[in-house]
Amino acid sequence: MITENLAEFASKKFGQNFLKSTIYLQKIIQAMPNDTLRVAEIGPGLGDLTKELVKTRRVTAFEVDKRLCEHLNHEFERPLETGAFELRCGDVLERWESGSLLDEPYHLVANLPYYIATTIILKAFKDEQCQSILVMVQKEVAVKFAAKAKEKAFSALSVLASSVGEATLCFEVEAEAFVPPPNVTSAVLLIEKNRSRDDEGFEAFLKVAFVQPRKKLSKNLITAFNKACVNQSFEKLELDPNLRPHEAATSIYHQLYNELKDNLDGKQQRKLSKQRRENTQKQKTQSS
Ligand code: SAM
User: Fold this and answer.
1) What pTM was estimated for this model as a whole?
2) Does some domain include residue 1?
3) Cα(248)–Cα(270) distance, rounded to whole angstroms?
4) Which is the closest atom of ligand 1 to the Cα of 113?
5) Which among 145, 175, 193 is the end of a domain?
6) How remote is the C-alpha of 119 from its chain's centroid?
7) Which of 34, 83, 142, 162 qualifies as a cystine partner to 189, CB 3.0-4.6 A?
C-alpha cells in the first residue's frame, strides 16, 4: 500500500515531498482568502491538504501521477460523488495550453512540485479566472516573488508579481515537515491578484533588464536595445543613469518597456524573440 514506505514511494521525477505536518496544513488553510470560490489544487499527492480543503470548499485537483490518482479516487469517493471534489489526472501545464485552468473564478492553493513551481505561478498570473495564489515553494523562490523595489532580492519575478497584485511571504517551513524531506527550506507565498497580465514581450524585456542584476540597468538594456534610445528614455523619464536593476520600481519598468518596445530594429526584434523562444523551451523542458 502507498503509505507503508512513503520515502521509497515518492517519485523524484514528479517532485514529490509530502507535507505531513498538521500544524502547517492548518496554517495554509488559515492563510486562504475568506470566500466561497472554487479552489484549484495542483498536485494533491496523497490528499492531506485536499482533506482540509474539501471540508469548506469546492475543489478541483490536478495530479500527474497515475498511482496517486488511483489512490485519490479511492480516498475521496464520497466528495467525488457529491461533486464537492473533482480530480483531473494529467500534466497541469497541458491543461493550461487550451486557456484557463477552470471555467469559473478560482483560488490556486497548493504545495507545488518545485521543479515547475515558477512556471506554474507565471501561468496563474496570466489566467483571468485565477484570483489568488497560495503556494508552498522553495524559500528562495518565495523571497524573489515577494521582494519590494530596492531590496536586494528584487528581480524580474518581483516585477511580474507586483504587476498583477500584492505578494507576501506568509511563513517558512522546515524540510523535516515533509516526507521525504527536500534539500531546501520551503515557504508559503500568497499573491492576491488584482489583474491578470499576459505579455510575453514584457517578460522577455525583464530578462534583458535583469540579465546582470548587479550591473547598471542602462547597460543591461543596451545589450538588446539601441543605445541612443535607452539614453533618451532615461532622460525622458528623468531616471538616474546609474540606477541598478533592483532599484527601479515596477512602474518604471512598465514605462521603460512602453518607451522602448516600439524602437526595436530587426536585430533587436530577433534577440527578444529568441529570449521568448528560450523561455517557452525552458518551460517545456521543465515539464517533460
Ligand atoms: N499536495 C501534496 C502534499 O502537500 O503532500 C503533494 C505535494 S508534492 C510537493 C507535488 C505534487 O505535484 C505531487 O503529488 C506530484 O505528483 C504532483 N505533480 C508534479 N508534477 C505535476 C504536473 N505537471 N501536473 C500535476 N501534478 C504534478
Assistant:
1) 0.92
2) no
3) 26
4) 10
5) 193
6) 6
7) 142
